[in-house]
Design goal:
- It is a single chain.
- By secondary structure, the protein is of the alpha+beta class.
- Helices cover 24% and strands 31% of the residues.
- The strands form three sheets. The chain has a six-stranded antiparallel beta barrel. The chain has a six-stranded mixed beta sheet with strand order 8-7-9-13-14-15, sandwiched between helices.
- α5 packs antiparallel against α6.
- The radius of gyration is 25 Å and the shape is elongated.
- InterPro entries: CHAT_dom (IPR024983).
- Pfam families: CHAT.
- It comes from Nocardia camponoti.
Length: 309
């Protein structure tokens, strides 16, 4: 039975989604103590595993993890359902700092940018510079971070995957039928190292959090992109046939600008193609491959904070 002489108070509820992003919003609740649990309005959006933080009279924060969420009936045998209740466990203060900000805490989109032009014939640095400038003027520029590795070697790829745990791997350089060309650790121009699609896939997938998207901004990379999806990647972008250096740069700039403005992968891909077409380039060269069950139209790479409450 819920005591009728008690009133609820505003607390903060934190929920972590399957992809690791967290949502924080305000909710009215009444803490009845560890024995009786906590109660909410019957229509409250609460689930097992949610974390609720209450500010105590002494100013300290008490964080509770909910369990056994259930609906409570009104007393005296009424069939009216008027409360949602839950048991809880008081958890350590290490999760408390998330509630000291009025903004929900979300994970930034991490982009590993690899550039390789062992023969020195591609404007790799310029492409990466333009991409970063496009992102810096976008709505959600603060939700994106880069790890840029020009003159990328096989070791750079593996180290970038292991340390940075990227959501997106972007490769700019030379490609071919089911391979990409990385550089050797040499100062002079050279032929580079041909990395097969299976080896590239193995390197990208060797992490507990594989990338969600691979972008191969290289000639003849459409077959490689399709193969990467077969191996592990939810989505991959490649280029069909030979691609002009300027077209590749325009596509990448338009694509990441759209991503950073909160659009879906499909919308960003379409924006990239449109950018190339408006400049008179081959807009049909970029190809997008997606795994079974993955819908690029509904996949957004930037997790925009939920400002409820």
């Amino acid at each position: 039975m819920v005591p009728r002489n008690k009133q609820g108070k505003k607390m903060k509820l934190r929920r972590v989604a399957d992809d690791g992003t967290a949502t924080v919003f305000e909710i009215e609740a009444m803490d009845l103590g560890p024995q009786h649990g906590i109660t909410f309005r019957v229509d409250a959006d609460v689930e097992d595993g949610d974390e609720v933080t209450d500010t105590l009279p002494n100013g300290k924060l008490k964080t509770m993890r909910l369990r056994e969420v259930h609906v409570l009936q009104s007393p005296f045998g009424s069939s009216t359902l008027d409360h949602t209740g839950a048991k809880y466990d008081v958890i350590s203060g290490k999760t408390t700092p998330a509630f000291r900000s009025s903004e929900p805490q979300v994970e930034k989109l991490r982009i590993l940018m690899l550039g390789a032009s062992p023969e020195g014939d591609l404007r790799i640095t310029r492409e990466h510079t333009r991409i970063r400038k496009a992102v810096e003027t976008a709505l959600h520029r603060d939700l994106i971070e880069f790890d840029v590795r020009l003159s990328a070697t096989a070791s750079d790829l593996q180290e970038g995957i292991a340390k940075f745990r990227p959501h997106v791997v972007h490769f700019a350089g030379h490609g071919g039928e089911k391979l990409v060309a990385l550089e050797r650790d040499l100062d002079e121009q050279h032929e580079g190292v041909a990395v097969t699609e299976s080896a590239f896939a193995a390197a990208c997938a060797a992490t507990d959090e594989p990338p969600k998207l691979i972008v191969l901004n290289a000639c003849d990379s459409d077959a490689t992109a399709a193969a990467l999806v077969e191996h592990f990647a939810p989505m991959a972008i490649g280029m069909q046939g030979s691609v002009d250096d300027v077209d590749a740069m325009i596509f990448a700039t338009s694509f990441y600008s759209s991503v950073a403005n909160g659009h879906s992968v499909w919308a960003a891909f379409s924006a990239g193609r449109a950018g190339v077409e408006m400049q008179g380039g081959d807009h049909e060269a970029p190809c997008l491959a997606a795994a079974v069950g993955i819908e690029p139209r509904s996949m957004k790479l930037v997790a925009v904070p939920d400002k409820r409450g």
